[in-house]
Amino acid sequence: MPELTERAQFLLKALTERYIRDGQPVGSRTLARDAGLTLSPATIRNAMADLEDLGLVSSPHTSSGRIPTVLGYRMFVDTLLSVQRLDDSVVERLRDTLNIKKDSQNLLQKASNLLSDATRLAGIVTLPRREHEALQRVEFLPLSDKKVLAILVISDKEVRNSILHTEREYSASELQQYSNFLNEQFGGKELSAVRALLVSELRETRENLNRMMATALDMADQVLGEAEQGSDYVLAGQTNLMEFQELCNVSTLRHLFEAFNEKSQILHLLDQCVENEGVQIFIGEESGYQMLDECSVVTAPYTVEGKVLGVLGVIGPTRMAYERVIPIVDATARILSAALNSRD
Amino acid sequence: MPELTERAQFLLKALTERYIRDGQPVGSRTLARDAGLTLSPATIRNAMADLEDLGLVSSPHTSSGRIPTVLGYRMFVDTLLSVQRLDDSVVERLRDTLNIKKDSQNLLQKASNLLSDATRLAGIVTLPRREHEALQRVEFLPLSDKKVLAILVISDKEVRNSILHTEREYSASELQQYSNFLNEQFGGKELSAVRALLVSELRETRENLNRMMATALDMADQVLGEAEQGSDYVLAGQTNLMEFQELCNVSTLRHLFEAFNEKSQILHLLDQCVENEGVQIFIGEESGYQMLDECSVVTAPYTVEGKVLGVLGVIGPTRMAYERVIPIVDATARILSAALNSRD
DNA sequence: GGTTAGCACTCGGGCGCGGGGAGTGCTAAA
DNA sequence: TTTAGCACTCCCCGCGCCCGAGTGCTAACC
What average pLDDT does the structure give for chain A? Predict the structure, then answer.
């Protein structure tokens, strides 16, 4: 990263802020007025030429003002940005909305809506990863006609059930035996571990197991298979993106929306944010995905009991109000984490 | 509806088909060549002038070809359309995809995808209405720490559960008593009836009821409240709509997509289709919703055991290939109904 | 009478032109 | 080092232009 004189930094900051504000390339005259410095446009022009040489700004054509490059934005958010303190009322609102007691799916949807409302961008929240969930308990309930309801208690917040199709009818007490067996064997273990154990056990001892055991294992495996489905996310406020000039041509929008539907690419990007804690920002091409070339993504992981469960964030044009967006994403992540933790 | 000479009908049909094919206003010369009739452009012009007087076609400006009006489309789909017979392979594909055994949520999503894929438009499927579902059984399971898992068995296909927060801990046997009571009282009744009964019973006899009954009713009410959430739909292939010239300006798209997110208006429209059986079509303004002015909606209800559960369909530009779309929507509705019926 | 050829007319779209404006780089002076 | 001055560049916008496609009307034709 090249070193800049204080003035150059100041100008880059002013230019970027101005450009973010009204989306027009910023000229030397405007900047001179804007910056508050008592410098003539000519001086500014010299400084801008330097910034251009360093690759921090560029001009769309010969005689127009400058706009920040990706590198310019990078420096802006990394070292120049003065992050706004969040208005208490906003925090209050976030907290209020997320503190209602609801199932987590609903909570994430709410969070996504909040993000998109507060930033006027698209909000995104990944569903919690399931890998490290532990199996608390399994219960089986007989339904009519060779069907069994399996209930998988993962925590006091997460319960999943699935309907199994069996080859014969089972009595309640018989099913009770099975679940007892499974709970004894696997209760408290991580789902992935349970699955692995089940598979190996099925392979090793299938011949020797009596019919009951085999069925129990089959059932559990069937349920686990469903429980460990692929990751996903909830999205809100995509339409907000249609308000921005720079995204407003149909082909750009189409690629973006197709990526939203496709999910895999976006998920892959968000997955990278799981490791780093705190707010993380991808500017334009940095994401490595073409459809996001003119977008920035601001993310933060959310946690329960210290473990990162998922990622939330916003997607918007590179020209977004970072100083407002960053604290919102940050706060939402914290508050969502708190809500997930404290729920009784 | 005005009566038309055979020739006028033929010309309207040819014109509409042509316009649907390539989206350009159709001129007399083109139509003369296209129609297969050995008529000169001048003759066609006369006939077109008549059609215009009847409000069936219009020209965007003085010297351009004609395009069908909403009325023209209406006559086209009602009396002129030669619906294509569906290719068997397509039916096969529909049937294959919908016959996998999956929970209904998943099935509807699949159906929506199929619709959008097969028509290259946006597919939509409303979630089944819940009103007439009967409560088969309720079970309670103690979780740790003053929490109780309530399981609501609605049918062999639908099970919902929710976690209740109680004021004290309950033993398994105590909970068993509650569920027995509820099952005796309400088993087999419709959810709405159950709810009504509960409310009145709570009001009338609250004072006299012992604590157990009250808790049981509270619990059940809490669960039912969640179960009877508002209606909803699954959507697929919105991005397909971005391919059409006539929808391709950002503001039109925005209104459309906002309506998709909003859901209430679209749902209201779809609700109208529940009553009529078979395929139903709204062309342009006919829907009564502004954001659909340049769109048509083709719907068909799907049923289980003769009862209409929901509606599916597609949304696309008025200029859509009705003769292809209609049988696809029709077939999908039938096949989805069959799949929902036959699932074991 | 229905059909057709001919003709004048209309309108949208594409193209080139020219002027104005915003902004630049360079040079030379303060 | 900063600044004023100046020539230059390029976008944008409006204007006039022409071309082509298509129309309506009229008059002739079968």
Answer: 85
Mutate to test the interface with A, among B143, B148, B263 (most CBs of A within 10 A): B143
| Interchain contact, A103 vs B162, CB within 8 Å | yes
Chain B residues whose beta carbon lies within 8 Å of the beta carbon of residue A165: 101, 344
Q: How far is B228 from A100, CA to CA, in rounded Å?
A: 19
- The tens place of each residue's pLDDT in chain B, 344 residues long, gives 557 788 899 999 999 999 999 899 999 999 998 877 888 999 999 999 999 999 999 999 988 999 999 999 999 999 999 888 888 888 998 898 888 766 667 889 999 999 999 999 999 999 988 767 778 888 888 887 777 888 888 877 777 777 777 777 888 888 888 788 878 888 788 877 777 777 777 666 655 555 556 666 666 666 666 655 557 899 999 999 998 888 878 888 899 999 999 999 999 999 988 888 899 999 999 999 999 999 999 999 999 888 898 999 999 999 999 999 999 999 999 999 998 887 55
Nearest nucleotide (CA of A46 to C1'): C25
How many whole angstroms separate alpha carbon B153 and alpha carbon B182? 12
Identify the DSSP state of B343: -
pLDDT at site B260: 95
Domains of chain A: 6-80 (1.10.10.10), 88-129+231-342 (3.30.450.40), 137-227 (3.30.390)
B25 in Cβ contact with B59 (< 8 Å): yes
Tokens for A148, please give them: 């069994």
* Contacts with A114 (C-beta within 8 Å, 6 or more apart), sequence order: A93, A94, A97, A98, A123, A332
The CA-atom distances, in angstroms, between B44 and each of A155, B9, B41, B223 are 74, 12, 5, 67
- Residue A328: predicted pLDDT: 95
Number of H helices, E strands in chain B: 12, 10
- A12-CA/C24-C1' distance, Å: 18
Separation in Å: C17 C1' and B62 CA: 29
For tokens 């999205």, name the residue.
Answer: A235
Determine whether the distance from the CB of A18 to the nearest atom of strand C is below 7 Å.
no
Interface of A with B (CB under 8 A): 101, 103, 139, 141, 143-145, 147, 149, 151, 153, 156-157, 159, 161-163, 165, 238-239, 242-243, 248-250, 253-254, 257-258, 261, 344
List % helix, strand, coil for chain B (3-state, nearest 5): 55, 20, 30
Q: Which residue of B has its CA nearest to A256?
A: B239
Whether residue B239 and residue A250 make contact (CB cut-off 8 A), yes or no, is no
Per the CB < 8 Å rule, is B151 touching A141? yes
Q: What is the DSSP string of B67-125?
A: EE-HHHHHHIIIII--PPPPPHHHHHHHHHHHHS---HHHHHHHHHHHHHHHHTSEEEE
Per-residue pLDDT tens digits for A93-134? 888 888 876 666 788 999 999 999 999 999 999 998 776 677
Measured CA to C1', the nucleotide nearest A24 is C22
Separation of CA A216 and C1' D10 in angstroms? 76
CB A70 within 8 A of CB A318: yes
Which pLDDT value is given to residue B162?
A: 76
Residue B209 CA distance to nucleotide D30 C1' (Å) = 99
Please report the number of interchain residue pairs, chain A to chain B, with beta-carbon separation below 8 angstroms.
78
